[in-house]
Amino acid sequence: MTTTIDRAAPADIADLRQLYYAVYGPHYPTALGTDPAEMSRLIADPHTLWLVARCARTGHLAGSAAIHGEPGSRIGRLEGLAVHPDHRAGGLAHTLTDELCRQMLGTGRLDSVYATVRTVSAGPQRVVTRNGFKPLGVLPNAVDLSSRESLALYARHSPGVLDRRLPVPEVPAPLAPLLRTVDRTLGTDGPAPRATAPAPAPEGRTTARLEMVEAPAFVRRRFHERFPDATSWFYPLHTPNALLVADDGGFEVYAYLNRTGRYCALIAAHPSPDTAAGYLEAITRTLTRAGTGYVEALVPLAEHGPLSAFLAQGFIPSALYPAMRPDPTGAGFHDYVVMTRTAEQIDFRGVVVDTALQPYVDAYLSAWAATYLPTLEVAS
Predict the structure, then answer these.
(1) CA dist 342 to 58, 113, 135, 291, 293, Å?
(2) Considering the entire predicted model, what is its pTM?
């Protein structure tokens, strides 16, 4: 089958929705393939490149994919990769991904692009691997489609970016298995950070009462008032739509809550992450009661204290994003850790992982066991 690759246009929206339904069914949790207003906005967004593959003979859409960016950030997210069931096995997913990366990474527009890839089969993992993406971790129970699914984090960097990673002197010991796995993946030669005991859990009001505000327009306005500088955010490429506020007004946590997929990303905290660290138990409890089965946050690898606070509340170091964010001084790039916590039983029996991803499953299981399995004393 001969196809042509073009930029998506507003006239494609109806056909795009049909394409995503044909590929993912009624449970696709992303607005890119389901919400006409958001799809129209992304097509017109100068920071987003959305490509479609058309059948040259009929003009029908055979595939779609996009790299989404945002103002002030040099990170992109590969999303919405879909090939119609009638047009698979022709390398179309590879062609779309290759063209997106050529235009966004090959031209220097972005420093890196990441993708969260399904693990129900090895096919999606091999598509991104063939396009130069490296596996960086697993995110168990990350999204609810027809059932709970685990995702894998992959990223691809522009030339020279990974060579400018800023060294970190020490990290909490539970991160060591993940860091060793990333070093093997990237072929890192430098000295590894010293593994030390996690810092004591911060004192906080674990019984604090929280209010959760789900008013997306209000939350966005307040968020941009609090954080006019994008470098203060935990999580780029996620627009907050929920706000958790302590009853005494002591802190605010901004989050992206996806009700369809039943997952949540913690984006930023005010006045500082340290202020909210002692409230993590209350935060995760509130989100669980709201039906969230999975919570994640990005934490700088150099921040030993916040990493320790997340570890103390049962979060697992699940993935590492190397050279994710440039230092404001231009000295290099900071690594970030994806800390995750799931309220539901993890079942890896349905997970299919490519060979390169298997060590990350092992690293996750090692960190999970260290967190949740007690050390038993044997009486003699």
Answers:
(1) 45, 25, 21, 11, 6
(2) 0.91
Contact by Cβ (8 Å): 301, 183: no
Which one-letter amino acid corresponds to residue 65?
A
CA dist 267 and 143 (Å) reads: 17
Structure tokens at 166: 């800023």
Which of the 8 DSSP states describes residue 380? Answer: -
Q: What distance in Å separates the CA atoms of residue 135 and residue 307, rounded to the nearest whole number?
A: 22
Contacts of 369 (CB under 8 A, 6+ apart): none
Copy the structure tokens of residue 147. Answer: 């059932």
In the beta sheet, which residues pair with residue 152?
A: 117, 138
Query: How many whole angstroms separate alpha carbon 26 and alpha carbon 40?
Result: 20
- 241 in Cβ contact with 219 (< 8 Å): yes
Cα–Cα dist 222/339, whole Å: 25
- Contact call for residues 234 and 267 (beta carbons, < 8 A): yes
- 125 Cβ partners below 8 Å, 6+ apart? 117, 119, 135, 152, 154, 353, 354, 356, 357
Q: Which string of DSSP letters, residue by residue, matches 238-259?
A: ----EEEEETTS--EEEEEEET
Per residue in 276-326, pLDDT tens?
777 888 899 999 999 999 999 999 999 999 999 999 999 999 999 999 999
The residue type found at 183 is D
Tokens describing residue 38: 């958001």
Both structure tokens of 359: 């060590």
